[in-house]
């Protein structure tokens, strides 16, 4: 089982480490049990995993409150906290390489892209339906490959937005592989939200992540 680390987030440690580390970045609800469960899943796959607490202890189940927290996010401070989280994982004795995977969901997906443009220690990015209007990564500074996972019926990140993201990364010289799942909307990976969860899409996406991360980080 993982543990909450004061002022940092939730740390999940593998029984059998693969020598790699992962940062998991929350949705707009905060560091809720679902995100901690995702961290545990990565730990079970061998990764030293840290889910930073971007809201500093605040969580919500209210969409209105989540929207308020989302829009009030201090982007510069969040970037600094992500850098601290990356540094924390890199210092763990089970982590043997100096680049990590960063995986984010919704708001966290956009922050994962940001982290990859501000930290030299990000070696792979997984963006699950990332969105935040105030986060504008400088993709000319992106050196890590990106795996983008989206739902075709996502009202927050529609197909046109996915195409714009792909074009922006590729035009800046970066690499992105993206997949859009038919019939899946926003938050299709979140199995704590039955109205959004799509088991087929989530299962396929998880397998893609587990294939992508070790290949990218080993490279």
UniProtKB/TrEMBL annotation:
Domain of life according to the entry: Bacteria
Family annotation (InterPro entries): AB_hydrolase_fold, Dienelactn_hydro, Dienelactone_hydrolase-like
Pfam families the UniProt entry points to: DLH (PF01738)
The keyword Hydrolase appears for this protein: yes
PANTHER family hit by this protein: ALPHA_BETA-HYDROLASES SUPERFAMILY PROTEIN, CARBOXYMETHYLENEBUTENOLIDASE-RELATED
Protein name as annotated: Dienelactone hydrolase family protein
Keyword Hydrolase: yes
Dienelactone hydrolase domain ranges (all copies): 9-216
Species annotation: Pegethrix bostrychoides GSE-TBD4-15B
Keywords: Hydrolase
Gene Ontology MF annotations: hydrolase activity
């Amino acid at each position: 089982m993982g543990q909450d680390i004061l002022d940092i987030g939730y740390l999940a440690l593998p029984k059998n480490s693969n020598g790699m580390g992962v940062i998991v970045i929350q949705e707009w609800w905060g560091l809720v049990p679902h995100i901690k469960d995702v961290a545990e899943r990565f730990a079970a796959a061998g990764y030293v995993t840290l889910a930073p607490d971007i809201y500093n202890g605040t969580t919500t189940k209210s969409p209105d409150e989540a929207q308020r927290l989302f829009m009030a996010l201090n982007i510069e401070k969040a970037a600094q906290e992500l850098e601290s989280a990356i540094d924390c994982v890199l210092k763990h004795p089970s982590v043997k390489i100096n680049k990590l995977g960063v995986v984010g969901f919704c708001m966290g997906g956009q922050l994962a892209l940001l982290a990859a443009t501000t930290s030299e220690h990000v070696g792979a990015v997984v963006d699950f339906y990332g969105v935040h209007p105030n986060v504008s990564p400088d993709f000319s500074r992106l050196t890590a490959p990106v795996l983008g996972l989206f739902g075709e019926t996502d009202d927050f990140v529609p197909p046109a937005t996915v195409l714009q993201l792909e074009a922006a990364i590729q035009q800046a010289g970066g690499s992105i592989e993206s997949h859009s799942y038919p019939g899946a909307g926003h938050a299709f990976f979140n199995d704590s939200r039955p109205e959004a969860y799509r088991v087929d899409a989530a299962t396929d996406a998880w397998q893609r992540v587990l294939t992508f991360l070790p290949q990218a980080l080993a490279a």
